[in-house]
Design brief:
- The protein is an alpha+beta fold.
- Helix content is about 35%, strand content about 25%.
- It contains twelve helices and 16 strands.
- α5 packs across α7.
- The chain starts with 8 loop residues before the first strand and ends in a 14-residue tail after the last strand.
């Protein structure tokens, strides 16, 4: 039976809670716990460039039974651009309640506490329970964001590993069906072979280079000149989170635990686009990730060149490449590069400011999202 305790405290975390919080993480996040260590907490919830001035405590809200952490919701602070202005907004991440304390409405109570301090909360990918929290808080549901894969060397072993993982996460009936499918060994072979064939046929239709002189260089850090690219194109999107040098360097240079490669697309010596990639770690499937790709929405040649660079960089070391996009130009570029859409996400936003909520409602289907948003490109262990 669920543990019942009317004296559970809901409050914002302090620095002295970190040891108890990390113990909670170790108990509830399974194989993903090592990737939510102290260094990542400090980077994500204390050292972001978007935390309101004067705040000193982590952007984490807790449910505590005495001194024991039994639930959390964290917020990754950011800045959205809407109607020509940058507005503070947070990404809801790490929504978790200890199994012994579920069924008590703790996630809803923690979320209510978060809204006392953060008036705009976005969620891009989420478990059904997290969606229910957002819906109870009267969220707006935004337009679809699609996940894409390019399974150019997908193996039956990887298909089996993925389906075994899904079986462990499923109800008993679905788990039995998945186990029967993988037990035949023929099923995973057919899935892998069909996916490879489809991807390679699509790759045959990848457009030839435009003939334009484009230069792609690898960089250790994004230069301040990338801000000109952001300034030139930020108003091409009704809704977008900041893509300035300060965001990109915090997100893809200073982040601990993951190794990113960063590339600039140049014309005439000036940045006209960028690409960020990473290889999967041992605890993940053998994938490569396009964490972000950016150019002007009308710059099809630039987007194609950056995606070609991503394939060249990632394909020798992985069985498949993963990317995500909500904007039509980005989705079209991924399809041209041979990617196949596999999942559809419906992001949500909760806003307690009436006027701002009305503005958000006007652009529900016009947001630009990739795996750079939320913490979508974090390690997902399988």
């Amino acid at each position: 039976m669920p543990y019942s305790n009317p004296h559970i405290t809901i409050r914002r975390a302090t620095g002295t809670d970190m040891r108890a919080l990390l113990k909670f993480v170790a108990q509830t996040y399974g194989k993903g716990a090592p990737f939510k260590n102290l260094a990542r907490h400090l980077w994500q919830f204390e050292n972001t460039p978007y935390r309101p001035a004067g705040e000193t405590e982590p952007t984490i809200w807790l449910a505590l039974d005495g001194a024991r952490v039994v639930g959390e919701i964290a917020v990754q602070d950011g800045a959205m651009r809407i109607q020509g202005k940058l507005v503070p907004a947070g990404w809801v991440v790490d929504v978790m309640v200890h199994p012994d304390y579920r069924g008590m409405g703790l996630s809803h109570r923690i979320h209510d506490a978060v809204l006392q301090d953060r008036q705009v909360l976005f969620t891009l990918t989420m478990a059904p329970a997290t969606r229910r929290v957002a819906e109870r808080a009267d969220c707006l549901t935004l337009g679809p964001t699609r996940q894409f894969i390019l399974p150019h060397r997908l193996s039956a072993k990887t298909v089996t590993r993925f389906l075994d993982y899904k079986a462990n996460m499923s109800n008993p009936r679905r788990a039995r069906m998945l186990n029967l499918f993988t037990a035949t060994r023929v099923g995973p072979l057919l899935v892998a072979g069909g996916a490879r064939l489809a991807a390679n046929l699509r790759r045959l239709r990848v457009p030839a280079p435009s003939g334009e002189v484009l230069k792609i260089i690898e960089v250790d850090r994004f230069p301040t000149s990338i801000d000109d690219l952001w300034t030139d194109h930020r108003d091409d999107f009704p809704g977008i989170f900041e893509r300035s040098a300060r965001f990109l360097n915090w997100r893809f240079v200073e982040a601990p635990g993951l190794t990113y490669r960063r590339f600039l697309l140049e014309r005439g010596g000036a940045p006209k686009g960028y690409l960020v990639t990473r290889l999967g770690v041992a605890e993940e499937l053998p994938l490569g990730v396009i964490a972000d790709v950016f150019a002007g929405p009308e710059d099809a040649a630039g987007l194609d060149a950056l995606l070609a660079q991503a394939f060249d960089v990632l394909s020798p070391d992985v069985e498949y490449i993963e990317a995500a996009a909500s904007t039509p130009a980005w989705q079209a570029a991924l399809r041209r590069a041979g990617f196949i859409a596999t999942r559809t996400m419906r992001p949500t936003v909760v806003c307690t400011n009436t006027n701002l909520r009305a503005n958000l409602a006007q652009i529900e289907g016009d947001w630009h999202f990739t795996k750079a948003d939320h913490d979508w490109d974090q390690v997902h262990t399988v």
